[in-house]
Design brief:
The protein is built from ten helices and no strands. Helix 4 runs antiparallel to helix 5 and helix 5 runs antiparallel to helix 6.
Length: about 180
């Protein structure tokens, strides 16, 4: 039990490391107002900076999966650890409980757990991005397709993938409200 508590706390604080904010202190006042790699790219037009932000955020997911395996060693621990990391990324204690959406962190976790699914997921999201020309809509529209894809691929960690995607969806709550208002 103590290992689970330690895992959740460490995962939250790993996830809450404010990468994009460290590169741009005004990130919350620009673009979408989120602390993420895509907003960094859209507002700073710096591909090298964006890649650094994205890689560091993805590495947070990798680190959390490794930590989950080390401290507890179960798929359920990975789910809880990654969700705690996403919550940390979305509501960082270091910067007034603001943050991003946790997508890069989730992708980092998937890189270790299901790399083929990550590639296919990226293709689905990119397809919807090219159709909608809107990264938020593309991500939201993709989620049901990705859940079906995970099921069709018969992933051993299907519930894990579903949990990660659900966590990302939950973190989009502000976007869902905005999309409803725009209709």
């Amino acid at each position: 039990m103590i290992n689970y508590v330690l895992l959740l706390l460490l995962s939250y604080f790993i996830g809450s490391f404010p990468t994009a904010y460290l590169f741009d202190r005004n990130i919350f006042r620009k673009g979408s107002g989120n602390m993420g790699a895509f907003n960094y790219l859209m507002t700073n037009k710096s591909l090298p900076g964006t890649l650094i932000v994205a890689v560091i955020d993805a590495l947070k997911g990798v680190l959390i999966v490794l930590l989950s395996n080390y401290l507890v060693g179960t798929n359920m621990a990975i789910i809880f650890g990654v969700i705690a990391g996403i919550i940390g990324h979305d509501y960082s204690a270091w910067i007034g409980f603001k943050g991003g959406r946790g997508l890069a962190l989730a992708c980092g976790a998937l890189l270790l757990l299901e790399p083929l699914f990550l590639v296919m997921m990226s293709a689905v999201v990119l397809l919807f991005f090219f159709i909608t020309k809107d990264n938020v809509k593309a991500g939201l529209i993709s989620i049901p397709f990705l859940l079906v894809l995970a099921f069709v691929m018969n992933l051993p960690e299907y519930f894990l993938v579903m949990g990660l995607l659900s966590a990302v969806l939950i973190s989009h709550k502000d976007v869902i409200i905005l999309v409803k208002r725009l209709k």
